[in-house]
Amino acid sequence: MNARLSLPFFATLVTTLVLAAPLLARPGELKFDEDSFEVLEEAGTALVVVERSRGEDGMVTVQYSTADGSAVEGSDYIGVSGTLQWGPGDGSDRVVQIPILDDGEAEGAETIQLTLFNPGGGASLDPERSTSVVVILGSDGGPVGDDSPGDDSPGDDSPGDDNGGDDNARN
């Protein structure tokens, strides 16, 4: 049996594919490359990487901002905010630069909170990595303990501390 496909069939097929193409678009997911970044206080700048994954269709944007953790804006760092943009087919990383101020004070590590928000162009945020922390490592004779995530040194009472017992108690 010879089956012949008619012109209206092809016109319907092409129209369906063209109309369905936007539904198949994958603009991607935006996220911080790591859940925390470390920088020495005297380094002058923290470099924080933001990546686009799981798709590169179309132009996408995302806004970012810093906020005080234990570090204080104006004393320990200069706050930044802005918008990052990717073009169609662009999966390269973007870098947010945060100026770090060396105050010369003897202190432990301090933290800056980072947030990605308001994605545009159909992109989404990775729910696990739309926030991150910059840990400013004091190198000017500060105390041993700090408040960096996961630090388990004596003197640290931060969440994630897993060395057991009261860190402020000395033997």
Write up what this structure looks like:
- By secondary structure, the chain is mainly beta.
- The protein is 11% helix and 35% strand.
- The strands form 2 sheets. A 5-stranded mixed sheet has the order 2-9-7-4-5, with no helix packed on it. It has a 4-stranded mixed sheet with strand order 6-3-1-8, with no helix packed on it.
- The radius of gyration is 24 Å and the shape is elongated.
- The protein starts with 6 loop residues before the first helix and ends in a 34-residue tail after the last strand.
- Mean pLDDT is 80; it is low at 143-171.
Biggest β-sheet description: 5 strands, mixed
Oligomer: single chain
Instruction: Give me the Rg, rounded.
Output: 24 Å
Strand order of the largest sheet: 2-9-7-4-5
The number of helices is: 1
Query: How are helices and strands ordered from N to C?
Result: HEEEEEEEEE
The global form is elongated
Mean pLDDT: 80
Number of strands: 9
Name the poorly predicted regions: 143-171
Class derived from helix and strand content: mainly beta
Portion in helices: 10-25%
**Strand percentage, roughly?**
25-35%
Quote the distance from N terminus to C terminus.
92 Å
In short:
The chain is mainly beta and 171 residues long. It contains 1 helix and 9 strands, in the order H-E-E-E-E-E-E-E-E-E.
Name the features.
disordered C terminus, mainly beta, 9 strands
